[in-house]
Write a structure and sequence with these properties.
homodimer, alpha/beta, Isopropylmalate Dehydrogenase, 2 domains, eleven-stranded mixed beta sheet
Chain lengths: 338, 338
């Protein structure tokens, strides 16, 4: 079991990435895993010195290029052959590793996954999934969270199938309830796309489809998987992000406008920290990209050590529980003419 | 200037509706307006007694039926001829009043607006708009917020035109900035629909189009009008609603789990109330339904007196500034082949 890590991707690279790797290697749970680290030679050598005792479980591959957040993903991916990201993907493509973990540019990661690893047989569109916290302290997988803007019904059916496989293999949730994002919970609600998807999902074998869900139910805990196209997934995720920022921002502003508020805010600080922790993406690790030949985990751009550690844990479960094979089998079992 | 009020619509009807009407009639600002009140005879008679001094400015029309939230809108609208909502629409249709205000079922209101008042000439699809608070203490108009799930590009172009007219005539915002909801702010981002709309809006005369906006910018104050189809509008609005509830719910839960939290929460209470007020839809009144022959304001189902008062104020501005004529002129000026 070998994970290929892009040490140079993300706002806090390479320190936070290497810190997460070190934490991962030191954990008993993952003692049967090895890491391939792609990145700046100096940083890797420093890592080697600091983790000498674990050196039989990591391989250092110095690279000379980095793909930035502001570059055109496709161009950069094709041009920067010696970048940490391209080299990590090549390792999975060549069978030297089984899963890529990167906190770098999402666009470059999706490009790399499709160009280097290619779609699994029968998969129409690979899909980016995001795991979010719910009111009951558990989590929900939203997919597509941004990879495919215009979708056909069969794409969303496959998202549901792949989402189920991911939740079972990686998040260890048995028979997750699957809902379809719509503008009303009644089965007759929806646009042309979701109405067709609703009947497709009702007929899909071996999934626990619970029908339409409204956007306000996202974090209700009423289901473990929420399916939508990548355009709507983006709108829902960013809408939630904007609303959270607005509310916490207004609260802060209002608290700081009076002495009384400042005192109250200070006393209530642990509660705010608690909420922030509960809403924290870092607890839930990265976003998996499902449907290509190999594991792909996109960690958040601002990932710290803990977030990287959690992303590596996801990659570990992915390989250990053979997610790729499970997806292949369920896709094969649900072959439908387009 | 006469407004037709559905006294029986909404969770707090008829008391809150009549309370809002009374407040409206007593305000100096609206002394040139009259109200037609449609509803239960007993409630209307009580209103008459309590507002005797203003009796030259209201007309009471007793009705015997009510359309509920759980009824099929089209069926109920066609069957309940003596309902407060149907009678209010008939009054506008017959020229006895110029604007309907109701806090009842949205579906029945939209049905009534289309069946009784009919689309304005050249308007492809009437549109429901929602006014929301922004970080800078102003507001943004989101449209379509739920009336049309599947849209052609020209529909969204007309939403922009009607949204501008509404903001100028009713919200008194000059030359509002208009943005298009998309999955990225760059002009090349979007799905098939929004890409076409982007080029249409770039060519539309006399509007201040500022390009694509992401969902997280909804309440940023960077624009005054945000255009999207009714499916995405629903997802964005309900996503924001769900996130707000989740954050405030988690905070409350966390505060109440410790004595320290309880004390801090108590001291910080005015700040919470302040935020709640800033996020309060009641401050912004109801949702206008634009593009039919007559004014239509949908007040929130749980409207209190103040919300109804604000909805009546919107209706007043609608009539006073002849929104219907302004929409007709701008639609005529932007005739485009489909």
């Amino acid at each position: 079991m070998i994970l290929a890590v892009d040490v140079m991707g993300g706002d806090n690279a390479p320190q936070a990435i290497l810190g997460g790797c070190s934490k991962f290697l030191k954990s008993e749970t993952f003692s049967d895993a090895e890491l391939m680290l792609f990145g700046d030679e100096k940083a890797l050598n420093q890592f080697k010195i600091e983790n000498e005792s674990l050196s039989n479980r990591f391989h250092l591959i110095p690279t000379t290029e980095v793909i930035g957040f502001d570059e055109s993903p496709t161009e950069a991916y094709k041009k920067k052959k010696d970048s940490s990201l391209v080299r990590a993907f090549e390792a999975v493509k060549n069978g030297e590793a089984q899963c890529v973990v990167s906190a770098g540019s999402t666009g470059a990661l999706l490009t790399g996954a499709i160009l280097s690893l290619r779609r699994q047989k029968g998969v129409k569109r690979p899909v980016l999934a995001s795991q979010l916290p719910t009111m009951n302290g558990k989590s929900v997988l939203l997919l597509d969270s941004g990879a495919n803007t215009d979708c056909k019904p069969i794409y969303l059916q496959q998202f549901a199938i792949m989402g189920k496989a991911y939740m079972e293999c990686v998040a260890q949730v048995k028979d997750p309830r699957i809902a379809l994002l719509s503008n009303g919970s009644e089965s007759e609600k929806g646009n042309m796309l979701t109405k067709e998807v609703h009947s497709l999902l009702s007929e899909t074998k071996n999934i626990h489809f619970v029908g339409n869900a409204e956007a306000r139910e996202l974090m209700s805990g009423n289901f473990e998987v929420l399916v939508c196209d990548g355009f709507d997934g983006n709108i829902l995720l960013k809408g939630v992000e904007g609303a959270s920022k607005m509310i916490l921002g207004l609260l802060k502003e209002s608290l700081y406008s009076s002495l009384r508020g400042k005192i109250g805010g200070l006393i209530a600080k642990p509660a705010f920290a608690d909420v922030k922790k509960k809403m924290d993406y870092k607890e839930y690790g990265g976003s998996p990209f499902l449907g290509v030949n190999g594991g792909v985990i996109k960690a958040h751009g601002s990932s710290d050590e803990k977030a990287i550690f959690n992303a590596l844990r996801q990659g570990y479960n992915w390989i250990k529980n053979d997610l790729e094979r499970v997806i292949q089998e369920t896709i094969d079992n649900n072959q439908i003419d387009e």
